[in-house]
């Protein structure tokens, strides 16, 4: 479908341009939200007649979006989710979850404003882009963790999916000799000791023969 853009839209074009888009995208998003008009002679004439009003409205929306951006950009939000020891979530954090999380903090955005290619499926610090206006983008951080305490540890730079975080072991401090030391005096129980002594005696006898 050919439409006339009533505001600048990323990857589509500038205000006033006629562009071709998918029918579903036009019917479900561009047309009902007032971001475009069907491209025909009547709407072209209407756009030209209302251009000044549309430009003023766009400037106002941009100004309002920028005010929100000034308070939202760079903010970090804690998201507590159940996850396994390796950090894999039992589920995911999707667009609708992000809308709810920001809404609880007083930032009312729509799902179309969240730029998220794939749902978040692991614990960690994740950057998410929010499009507040065609020309105003901000980036927020989602601190996804199994608890508020773990979220705080992540903010301090700790990797909750590393071996030392999972098992309490500092993997950088491990040495081969920590796993087996041939010179160590290992404690054997009585039966093991007798069995080892018996095997040693048999080896000596076989050598004598």
From TrEMBL:
Ranges of residues in domain Ribosomal protein L9: 13-40
Cellular component GO terms, alphabetical: ribonucleoprotein complex; ribosome
Signal peptide segment: none
Entry keyword set: Ribonucleoprotein, Ribosomal protein, RNA-binding, rRNA-binding
Region (Disordered): 167-209
GO biological process: one example: translation
Keyword Ribonucleoprotein: yes
UniProt-recorded Gene Ontology molecular function terms: rRNA binding; structural constituent of ribosome
Pfam families listed in its UniProt record: Ribosomal_L9_C (PF03948), Ribosomal_L9_N (PF01281)
Acidic residues composition bias: residue spans: 184-209
Family recorded in the similarity comment: Belongs to the bacterial ribosomal protein bL9 family.
Cited HAMAP family: Ribosomal_bL9
Job of this protein: Binds to the 23S rRNA.
PANTHER family: 50S RIBOSOMAL PROTEIN L9
Full protein name: Large ribosomal subunit protein bL9
Organism of provenance: Martelella mediterranea
């Amino acid at each position: 479908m050919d439409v006339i853009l009533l505001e600048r839209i990323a990857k589509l074009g500038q205000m006033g341009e006629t562009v071709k888009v998918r029918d579903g995208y036009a019917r479900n998003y561009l047309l009902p939200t007032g971001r475009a008009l069907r491209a025909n002679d009547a709407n072209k004439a209407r756009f030209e007649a209302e251009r000044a009003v549309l430009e003023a409205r766009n400037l106002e929306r941009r100004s309002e979006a920028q005010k929100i951006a000034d308070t939202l950009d760079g903010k970090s939000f804690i998201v507590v989710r159940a996850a396994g020891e390796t950090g894999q979530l039992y589920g995911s954090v999707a667009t609708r979850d992000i809308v709810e999380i920001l809404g609880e903090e007083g930032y009312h955005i729509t799902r179309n404003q969240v730029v998220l290619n794939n749902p978040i499926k692991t614990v960690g610090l994740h950057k998410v882009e929010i499009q507040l206006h065609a020309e105003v983008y901000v980036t927020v951080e989602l601190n996804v963790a199994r608890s508020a305490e773990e979220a705080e540890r992540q903010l301090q730079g700790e990797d909750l999916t590393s071996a030392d975080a999972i098992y309490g072991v500092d993997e950088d401090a491990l040495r081969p000799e920590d796993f087996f030391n041939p010179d160590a005096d290992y404690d054997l129980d009585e039966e093991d000791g007798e069995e080892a002594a018996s095997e040693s005696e048999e080896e000596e006898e076989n050598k004598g023969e």
